[in-house]
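We treat protein structure as text, and this decision shapes the records that our systems exchange. We quote a single record here, exactly as it is kept in our systems:
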Amino acid sequence: MRRWQQILGATTAAIFIAACLFSAHAADRIYLRTGADLVCDHQKNFDGQVRLYLTSSEDNYLEVAATDIVREEPVTGDSADVTSSAVQIPSGLTNPIPSKAVDLTALLAHAGAAHHLDPDLLASVVHEESHGQAHAISRAGARGLMQLMPQTATDLGVRNAFVPEQNVAGGTTYLDALLMYYHDDLALALAAYNAGPAAVARYHGVPPYPETRHYVAGVIHDYNRRKLREARKPKSFSSPATVCAGIVQHP
């Protein structure tokens, strides 16, 4: 559990999640004319353009026209389900074929355990990359659940990117390496996953590419939604069990 706990404790996304959970009004939910919505920490107006900052950091933002903002609502831990209305197959995907025989939840849990990453984070990446379509292909040629480019897949030892187990194993390995390289800065790791480390180095942060900023925003938003939903689940207690030093002991 070490690595995903570091992410929740140290990354900008984690700070944002904690704020959502424990503050009465930590952020705003922004509804856009395109039909999409996202949660932002704060915003600034620049001559008709609005920067929606995804975290308290000034480096992680999405810029939209002021006229594209339909309405805003405060987000609190007690609010209704925080979900995105933009649930659709990305336009860049062609011929998505669902993989019904694969238990994606179990697959992500296994990959997360192998790399000490939160399965919810991996699920958010898969959601943003392919919407769970194992045979998705982007216009750029990225393939599978975590949208691996052919050369990247080869470098990661993935022989068939359309095989869910191989794709998730390779994508998780790559994301883990990026998180380690960027010292668990989730926004930078996601930007590098989408646009490449060279682009992050060139711009000294999240590149100003609309696709990359939408991608980072989308993953973080979905991750926040999953953690908020998890936090609202009723706690269950098992009276026969005794917890001692992290070990559940049964009489």
